[in-house]
TrEMBL record:
Lipid/polyisoprenoid-binding YceI-like domain location: 9-170
Lineage, uppermost ranks: Bacteria, Bacillati, Actinomycetota, Actinomycetes, Mycobacteriales
Family (UniProt): Belongs to the UPF0312 family.
Full protein name: Lipid/polyisoprenoid-binding YceI-like domain-containing protein
Pfam family, one: YceI
């Protein structure tokens, strides 16, 4: 089931990569939607006896957070939420991956936000693009409190945050 076209060293294409978040607010009546525009990263896929060996890293510039409302962006970057002065980056480190179906990989990763780290399993859809790049798409739901993102004026914000990520990687070798 492993696509041998995946084997190699890969560099993230930041112009074609998107990291979006959605979080309920106003006691679930509305949603805050936003993006992180500053991203970098790389990955490696090698053949292994039992499938593939996957490693990689995605670095997100926490200061690149945008929701479309400057005052809200400033508040989300403050110590109440992401505290970007002290913690300017968010990272996802991929330790391994298991092919689970045609075009699907279950990635084992560690997400670091502020000074908190938690392991994640990310069901990821992988497709080859026309130009030979790899397009990885995943979604997950996180509890923001587990990462110290705990600002919550008058209890208006829920704890769950939905993350949608599309990473495009260009072959390096």
């Amino acid at each position: 089931m492993t696509d041998t076209n995946w084997i190699g060293d890969w560099q993230l294409d930041p112009q074609r990569t998107t990291i979006e978040f959605h979080s309920p607010t106003f006691w679930g009546l509305a949603h805050v939607k936003g993006t992180f525009g500053g991203v970098s990263g790389s990955g490696r896929v090698a053949a292994a006896e039992d499938g593939i060996d996957v490693t990689g890293r995605l670095d997100i510039d926490a200061t690149s957070l945008k929701t479309g409302i400057k005052k809200r962006d400033t508040h989300l970057c403050s110590p109440d939420f992401f505290d970007v002065q002290r913690f300017p980056s968010i990272s996802v480190v991929v330790h391994s991956g298991e092919v689970t179906g045609t075009g699907w990989v279950l990635l084992q990763a560690t997400l670091s936000v502020k000074d908190a780290q938690r392991d994640l399993e990310l069901a990821t859809h992988v497709r080859s693009a026309d130009d030979g790049a790899l397009r990885l798409q995943t979604t997950t739901t996180l509890n923001r409190l587990h990462y110290g993102v705990d600002g919550n004026l008058l209890g208006m914000m829920g704890e769950a945050v939905n993350i949608e990520a599309t990473a495009v990687l260009i072959r390096q070798s």
